[in-house]
Amino acid sequence: MDFQTIKARDDQYVVHTYNRFPVDIDHGKNATLWSAEGKEYIDFTSGIGVNSVGVANPKWVDAVAVQAAKLGHMSNLFYTQPCGALAERLCRRAGMSAAFFANSGAESNEGLIKLARKYSFDKYGKGRGTILTLTNSFHGRTVTTLAATGQDVFHNYFFPFTDGFRSAEPTMDGIAQVAGHDVCAVMLELIQGESGVWPLEQSFIHDLAVLCAERDWLLLVDEVQTGIGRTGTLFCYQQYGILPDAVSFAKGIAGGLPFGGFLVGEKCRNVLGLGTHATTFGGNPICAAAALTTLDILSEEMMGEIADKGKYLRSAIEAMDLPCLGKTRGLGLMIGVEVKPGQTNRDVAMKLMDNGLLVLTAGPALRLLPPLTITKDEMDKGLAIMKQTLS
Asked: CA dist 356 to 52, 305, 325, 340, 349, Å?
């Protein structure tokens, strides 16, 4: 099927909520993709960080096929082995105590919100349910996680939004200005991805963690995008020297299948009891088997490789001194690239795609989230396209 036929069908039958690029993807291998008509692309997007172990990874494909032939789904009213095995693996590597499995990043963050409010209700009663978030944050697209998101551009159309959130500038003075006796938690991303890939200052995070402990606010870390090896450690908080009360994850956990959840520390392991939270598809055996294999591939030993790949890409991009691009920022293989005035990031992304390199945009920047298994050859091909296109 040619591209125009694919596009025409999509235009007719799919709700137009996505500003799609004029590219179709039919199949791929690791970080190299092909359209239905055979055009080759180097992938610096991994499905917005989802294809963490690349496309068609043989170990991942085998794990999904084997589990699909055994059991596709079972209610959480019964036990399945992949679910428990995954919970144990994640808790051990993350230094946490228990896991809840969900389906998406927004749903995982909704779980954090419910956890914080029940923790506070159980201990202090009503009137202490406000959660502080940060300006330029992004926590999801449900009505509640949009309310938690600290960007005005998302606060439209869907009124009334859920109450119980206040946004602060990412400084201790900013927190002090919006804090109050009604606060139960702070929820934050350590790298604010959707607004342009902005890492938060470690000193601020350390001081905030101390404040949360003093006031018995839960420290909730949204690692939907930064988690599962993306920044060079299994979770980004492991580079910040903190241990949150709870952390959410999704995107890369199952290597391409819809999966997410949150981990809780010992303080919160018994907050959500029988009947207080649930989801039909959470802990799905096929997704859990895929996640176990993803963690096998993304071993502790591989974390250093991810950090090195990120440094390689960033240094190579900055060394090109391209007229439309500025400095880079980020951790591991979560990279933001400044776009200088005169062109928009979408204009730059379109030029790169025309020449065979897929990139993302975020805020005013380019955002690079290649598969964590990307090879040096694939990185070099992508860099060559970037240099040829933008010089």
From this structure: 20, 25, 18, 22, 10
pTM score > 0.90 for this model?
yes
Structure tokens at 280: 């039909």
Is the separation of the CB atoms in 288 and 82 below 8 Å? yes
The reported pLDDT for the residue numbered 181 is 97
Q: Over the range 238-259, which residues count as b (16 or more CB within 10 Å of their CB) and which as e? A: bbbebbbbbbbbbbbbbbbbbb
- Tokens linked to 265: 């520390």
211-249 pLDDT tens trace = 999 999 999 999 999 999 999 999 999 999 999 999 999
Residue 204's CB: how many other CB atoms inside 10 A? 17
- Identify the CA nearest to 289 among candidates 31, 108, 69: 69
Residue pLDDT, tens place only, 163-195: 999 999 999 999 999 999 999 999 999 999 999
Positive or negative torsion for Cα 226, 227, 230, 236: positive
pLDDT, the chain, mean: 98
**How many Cβ atoms sit within 10 Å of the Cβ of residue 386?**
27
What does the alpha-carbon distance between residue 91 and residue 76 come to, in Å, rounded to a whole number? 19
Reading across the β-sheet that carries 27-29, which strands appear in turn? 27-29, 32-34, 40-43, 357-358
Q: What are the tens digits of pLDDT across the range 3-44?
A: 999 999 999 999 999 999 999 999 999 999 999 999 999 999
Tell me how far apart the alpha carbons of residues 56 and 60 are, in angstroms, rounded to a whole number.
7
Query: Which residues 6+ apart lie within 8 Å of 317 measured at CB?
Result: 325, 328, 337, 383, 386
Q: Are strands 98-102 and 365-368 parallel, antiparallel or unpaired?
A: unpaired
Q: Which domains does the chain have, with CATH numbers?
A: 3-52+300-390 (3.90.1150.10), 59-297 (3.40.640.10)
Whether residue 31 contacts residue 43, with contact meaning beta carbons closer than 8 Å, is answered with: yes
CB neighbour list of residue 160: distance below 8 Å, 6 or more residues apart: none
Q: What is the residue-wise DSSP string for 323-355? A: TTEEEEEEETTEEEEEE-TTS-HHHHHHHHHHT
